TrEMBL record:
It holds the Pfam family Sulf_transp. This is Membrane protein YedE/YeeE. InterPro entries: Sulf_transp_TsuA/YedE. Keywords: Membrane, Transmembrane, Transmembrane helix. It comes from Caldalkalibacillus uzonensis. The chain crosses the membrane at residues 28-47, 53-72, 93-114, 120-141. It comes from the Bacteria. The keyword Signal does not apply. The keyword Membrane applies.
Amino acid sequence: MQTTTSQQQEQSQVRLEAPALPASQTTLVALGLAGAFLLSYVTYQIADLQMAILLWVGLLLGFTLFHARFGFTSAFRRFMAVGNGEALRAHMLMLAAASTLFALIFSTGTGLFGTEPAGFVSPIGVSVVVGAFLFGIGMQLGSG
């Protein structure tokens, strides 16, 4: 009985230790963080603190959704492959919550940092094409 308990304790201790990142991933993480800090510094210099804060909110939300595999393609793929529609329902719930919140924000005129929100429509230009291309690359790298 003693050996079984000691073996279980050894196994539980082994599970708690997290492996270190390989050198290649450590380099990529360091480069990514350096790029994010450089981008936030440039954003702060060109715009102001508000845009730098919003940049970090977007980066952190994107990082969270990427690691949660909360992508539209993966949700649809899971629904078609195994019939599991939980991810699609989560997307619909997120869309409903975002639409409701945006309707409240626009109707009350209350925005972040003392600004008044308004709908902004502009013609399609080069920035939309470049943004769509970058979005497509990000979707492929993020597996959907």
